[in-house]
């Protein structure tokens, strides 16, 4: 896939007037967001497999340098559809998720709806649950504190307590294959606020 560019930059020849209006609203609204501008990406329709203008936002876990969630929208000139996107081909999911957005209207109106949608996602309280052994983090889980919905997890076998390593090996769970059963790890040792509104204590 060709190079992507931030919402605030685009080649005039790549967008028609309607697409420019949509992109300009997003770029203007995103100026106040607490995100790396390079995480806000615009892909002109000819550069996408879907032949629609696409704008997406990568939400990262900065302390651990890992992607947590990619959300974005496809705009066809009058309708915008958004949701959690596949983080490689940026396809919308076959079945809508809790992140789904759909709006129809003129470019400025639907771009403002899309910007509201991105802002609402950024405002949700994202936390990183951490499990420690011997002072080192061996398991993490990114989740929304308001719902407990998990977005991503990680596990480092060599850092885990021996009994946890043995149990997971017996269960056939190896790094990169299967998912770690959070309940089997017990309560996390700490929760780190990543972004969004801070959850109530």
UniProtKB/TrEMBL annotation:
Region (Disordered): 179-201
Superkingdom assignment: Bacteria
Protein name, entry field: Uncharacterized protein
Organism for this UniProt entry: Streptomyces minutiscleroticus
């Amino acid at each position: 896939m060709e190079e992507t560019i931030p919402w605030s930059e685009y080649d005039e020849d790549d967008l028609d007037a309607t697409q420019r209006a949509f992109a300009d609203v997003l770029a203007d609204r995103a100026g106040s967001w607490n995100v790396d501008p390079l995480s806000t990406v615009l892909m002109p329709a000819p550069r996408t497999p879907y032949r629609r203008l696409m704008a997406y936002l990568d939400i990262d876990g900065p302390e651990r340098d890992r992607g947590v969630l990619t959300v974005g929208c496809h705009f066809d000139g009058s309708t915008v559809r958004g949701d959690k996107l596949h983080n490689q081909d940026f396809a919308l999911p076959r079945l809508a998720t809790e992140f789904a957005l759909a709006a129809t209207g003129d470019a400025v109106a639907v771009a403002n709806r899309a910007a509201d949608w991105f802002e609402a996602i950024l405002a949700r309280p994202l936390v990183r649950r951490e499990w420690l052994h011997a002072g080192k983090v061996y398991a993490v889980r990114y989740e929304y504190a308001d719902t407990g919905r998990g977005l991503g997890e990680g596990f480092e076998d060599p850092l885990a307590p021996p009994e946890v390593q043995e149990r997971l090996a017996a269960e056939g769970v190896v790094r990169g294959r299967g998912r770690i059963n959070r309940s089997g790890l017990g309560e996390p040792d700490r929760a780190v606020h990543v972004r969004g509104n801070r959850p109530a204590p």
